[in-house]
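call fold(seq) -> tokens
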Amino acid sequence: MYSDNGRNFVGAANELRQLVRSESHQKAIAQECTNNSIRWHFNPPKASHFGGLWEAAIASAQKHFVRVLGTHTLAYDSMETLLTQIECCLNSRPLVALADDPSDLEALTPGHFLTGSALKAVPDIDVAEIPFNRLRQWQQTQKLFQQVWRRWHLEYLSTLQSRTKWCKPPISIEKGQLAIIKDDNSPPMNWPTGKIIETHPGDDGTTRVVTLQTPSGRYTRPISKICLLPIASAEEKTSSICRIVHLHCS
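ret:
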């Protein structure tokens, strides 16, 4: 288990250490730790840059959260609800294809490591464009949440749409690749995905249009409206999963 030296994890490590030393619990706890290969790794104090992976994820949402919240004042319950919803958004982002099966359109997300499946949001009315003073308390919280989602998820998708210079070969687009279909008006925590079943190269041989198979049918989209999920080797998948586990254990 990795931690950014948060007090809760330091306290948990100290409690476990004392229990292991006690004779009555030593055998059972030692056996449990051995079975689950539990070891504690703490970053040095005042060294948040050691956790670059999870700190970057937090910073990407925190920037939009601060801008959207502005001068609004929320009650404790409303703030807790808003932060929990933003956390769900971060943990719902697609990472890689969940399986190599061509018919499987689901992507692996951080939520799979937390709950065993992708995180879902309850359908709600879009209140992002309604003035703040015309909304009730719950709707005000949802308005802030929807505004954070629109800003953050578009920024995240842009990081998946890497653009190469003219002197470098274009990104390889092949059949069977899983991609996120970019939709500026998608509701919170909704990541429409599809697998490329056909490419449409131009006269120069470069693919600029693809046909995707989605749960709701087939769609033809330009490559500027899709975000390819990375295809990792077995070693890279193992390394990626380890990093994700480290992120959520901290």
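Residues 17 and 26 are 10 Å apart (CA to CA).
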